[in-house]
């Protein structure tokens, strides 16, 4: 690989870096290139496609926990439609709304973002927010009708998500100003809300599932903390109380890994209590390599290794979520 890189001309290396930057830009990742002029590509960038994945996965876990998903065409199309709701529409709405209210802080932390860079106007951003929101509620209502729900469960979940996204980003509450409330709101958005939607597609959402996923969302809080490390300087400058600002980089890193590991192990303990011992054992085994990568990368250098840590450790977390969903579906909870 190094030989191939060294054999490239400066022009080829520059072209490769530009392609990489364009890809990062479209996905909404940190370190994106600037200079994009296509308004449609800029709109997609605002929606941060890279952030759709956790919610789509949470939806799959919820469908599994219902115990009623079957590999037949109608069920697959239902899940695909709900993926559209959870990913591009509602997560896209949330990310666009967040960028709208974060214009000042992005000018410090990520000046290449579309709004502070002047690549898209504020009225265009507002129009995008309203369109995504309207389309999301239309899809949610259609899913409720399709599933024959006695009351509009998925529409209500969408409403809860809309409200949570608003108070997370917008004043006067702006939950993201506080590391605990803001990161838990993100954790619940990653895990609980899409899980409820997926479960509601095929089963009756009950109190046990709601409480378990809200507990599991504390692991999501740990994940959300990782995203705060990239914006420590801007958060401190604007007085935002993120966990890295309040506890320092090292302290916040420990909070992050403990929240992830302890609440996963707690869920494994619950699975044992309902006699789902095989699933509980698999979940515990998935935590072991996760802890290893936390020690190798994140705890030693959170600022430098945050991306590497997420790529290596988080697959074990998301696999553990699916294991939990399958266990709950098998138990008939």
Furnish the topology, listing elements before pairings.
Elements: H1 2-6, H2 10-27, H3 39-47, H4 52-66, H5 73-101, H6 103-109, H7 122-146, H8 153-169, H9 179-190, H10 192-202, H11 207-226, H12 232-237, H13 243-273, H14 277-298, H15 302-331
Fold and architecture overview:
The protein is an all-alpha fold. The chain has two domains: 37-205, UbiA prenyltransferase (Tetracycline Repressor, domain 2, Orthogonal Bundle); 207-227 and 242-333. The protein is 77% helix and 0% strand. The chain has 15 helices and no strands. The protein has helices at 2-6, 10-27, 39-47, 52-66, 73-101, 103-109, 122-146, 153-169, 179-190, 192-202, 207-226, 232-237, 243-273, 277-298, 302-331. Helix 5 packs antiparallel against helix 7 and helix 8 runs antiparallel to helix 10 (192-202). The protein is globular. The model is unreliable at 1-5 (pLDDT under 50).
